[in-house]
Amino acid sequence: MKKFALLCILVTLSMFSVASDDSKSPSKTVDRIKDAANVLNEIQAAPDQGIPEEVLGSAECVAVVPSMIKGGFVVGARYGRGVSSCRTPKGWSAPAFFMVAGGSFGLQIGAQAVDLVMLIMNQDGMHHLLSSKFKLGADASVAAGPVGRHAAADTDWKMRAQVLSYSRTRGIFAGLELSGATIKQDKDSTREFYGRMVPVATSLEGHIDAPNAAYPFLDTLAKWAQSAASK
User: Fold this and answer.
1) Average per-residue pLDDT for the chain
2) pLDDT computed for residue 108 by the predictor
3) Buried residues in 98-131 as b, exposed as e (16+ CB within 10 A)
């Protein structure tokens, strides 16, 4: 039994390693930008099952992880690479690349890919995102976000969390409890995309211009955020 458990752990870690290695080429970071845009487009194209307009219109920053790996044999785990952008006086910022990781032990059979969306709702949450590493639920409060065309009037989403999280699996979109996951800068992807190391705060506070390759995500984000704010 111990040998079987060890084998399953090694298989899970190998799967994560392959995902990590694949993301180091420039084409992979550009693909991630496009995939993040597609996730937002597909979610918001069905507004009755998407992020409420009031919530998206109030978010300080938006972070998307396309196809986060969740699950495994014996060891339950989460691992993914994503891209984020924040509001600035000039519009949405140049993207920052990050990794999300966290796990729990328990019997789980199989693995699945989950699209993850995180909305940073206030300045305190943005402060954590600007750091190189923080933990959801410990450093920054996190809660499952409301779903639908509009947030119900009696919900307290404006006050209860610095980060609202969502997941989409097999076409089903819902709020996600993500407490315990660690968010840190994806330095390899940052170097590949920008050609040098760029601190998280430098990109998300608007101190550098976004490369052309970033605009599939930034234009999509601006479109849906502007639409939400105008409603």
Assistant:
1) 78
2) 44
3) bbbbbbeeeebeebeebbbbbbbbbeebbbbbbe
